[in-house]
Amino acid sequence: MDTITFSTDLESNIRLMQSIFRGDNTFVTRRAVSRAGLSCAVFFFDGMVNNIAINQSVIRPIVCSDLSCASAETICQTVLQINDSRVETDSSKLFASFLYGDTVVFTEGDARPVVVNTKGFSVRSASEPENERVLSGPREGFTECFMPNLALIRRRLNDRRLKFTFLRIGSRTNTIVCLCYLAGVCEQKLITHLRRKLEGLDIDSVLDANYLAERIRDHRWAPFPTFGTTERPDVVAARLVEGRCAVVVDGSPVVLTAPFLFQECFQSNDDYYISFLQANLSRLLRVAGFLFTITFPAVYVALMLYHRELVPARLLFAVSAAQRGVPLPIGWETFLMLLVLEALKEAGARTPGAMGQTMSIVGGLVLGQAAVSARFAAAPTVIVVAIAGVTGLMVPKLQTAALWLRFALLAAAAAYGLYGVGFALALTMTWLCRMHSCSVPYLLNLIPRVQAEQEDAWLRAPWFFMRHDRFAVKRNPSKGDKP
Questions:
Q1: Whole-angstrom Cα distance, residue 78 to residue 66?
Q2: pLDDT of residue 166
């Protein structure tokens, strides 16, 4: 917004404010005159402010004042009865606060406005996130309101080293973004790296955390996440203690954490609230489920097309008998059934409430049975696709990567058999080895030349073995800083 200059004449300031917000019916102008003749003008937006705070802490003290004239400092320090008020001379900061729910007060004879914190817009209560439910542990979740989200983090980290750095991003939305970190625990180069990327963004609007994640991530075209996302304050607190940074965006319940490593995709909130033996078993199942969901359809097609000698005779006869009468080649058949599976998942996700779950289950059963009965697809293919779909749900953070890899491996299997599957997996591993998240290797605990803490890598150690620097790279001074 262009710089706007106010005058010492109150009526001129009132006309200027009314001309700026002409056509906005929520803009309210309230004149207040004290018994001794002090004349002020109060501006606010209806629905964005706390009316009780304005009436009792702003208008009533002005009306009851014994002053006949006063400067902006006097109004701020001796008249207003509120804990957060300031004299603001920067018009851009003035309107940023005013549009976000603060009240502006002008007085006769002073061109400097007073900004009063009277935010009072409605927010939803902190409830457990639907997509991050736990069997045991805290039940609170972030909301769309900025300051309460920061309070949820600070309530869990009673450490004076916890720092909140505010930035404003978006030329039109002017969204408040907070960079959170623990000074002395988080590496300074990581803080500098993230701050430089956030300040260098040229974007007109930021309405959600994903607006930032897609712009500042290291590998924009990779289907693997390089920023952690969560709606739980306990997860953010744990990441900050580990030496990471968090990015809180006003208006979004999702908080970004960085760096984010590949191993974290297989970690769950429940892992830290249950026995480490049960948590480790669950992690192994998630890893196996991810490998299964991307390779099972491809291996099935490769065996049926190129490597039938590797299949036991009885199983091969059963699959061949089921394939009899199916008009499509097995590669195209598996491909179309995977597309139907993704269509059912999308429809179930977009349909409200329990109706979506019912439609997904009933639709899958009905379509699968109808496809087999009509000889459009073989029963073994339906079973393979169903198993791949179920195991894909075990790792929700990698659903996008699993979807792309599933189809890529299927194409490689249809073209070159198991050799194509192996080559595609090798290319994927090479790609992962080259990836970074905020300059930290994505496969930190799989690269032999890089040593890191192992207490909470692929398996979780008991709490009496755990340390705070789980992702920090060990550097050998004799070999230099480069991994």
A1: 11
A2: 93
Which tokens sit at 252? Answer: 């979004």
Question: Long-range contacts: 337-343, Cβ < 8 Å, 24+?
Answer: 337/371, 337/377, 337/381, 337/382, 337/385, 338/297, 338/385, 338/388, 338/406, 338/407, 338/410, 340/367, 341/385, 341/386, 341/388, 341/389, 342/403
What DSSP letter does each residue of 99-156 carry, written as one string? TTT-EEEEETT----EEE--B----------GGG--SSS------S-HHHHHHHHHHH
DSSP, collapsed to helix, strand or coil, labels residue 248 as strand
* Dist. CA 164–CA 182, nearest whole Å: 9
At position 36, the amino acid (one-letter code) is A
pLDDT for 354 beyond 70: no
Q: Where are the domains of the chain?
A: 10-116, 130-271, 282-434
pLDDT at 449: 45
In this prediction the pTM is 0.82
- pLDDT tens-place string over residues 279-295: 889 899 999 999 999 99
Q: Please give the average per-residue pLDDT across 90-109, as a whole number.
A: 90
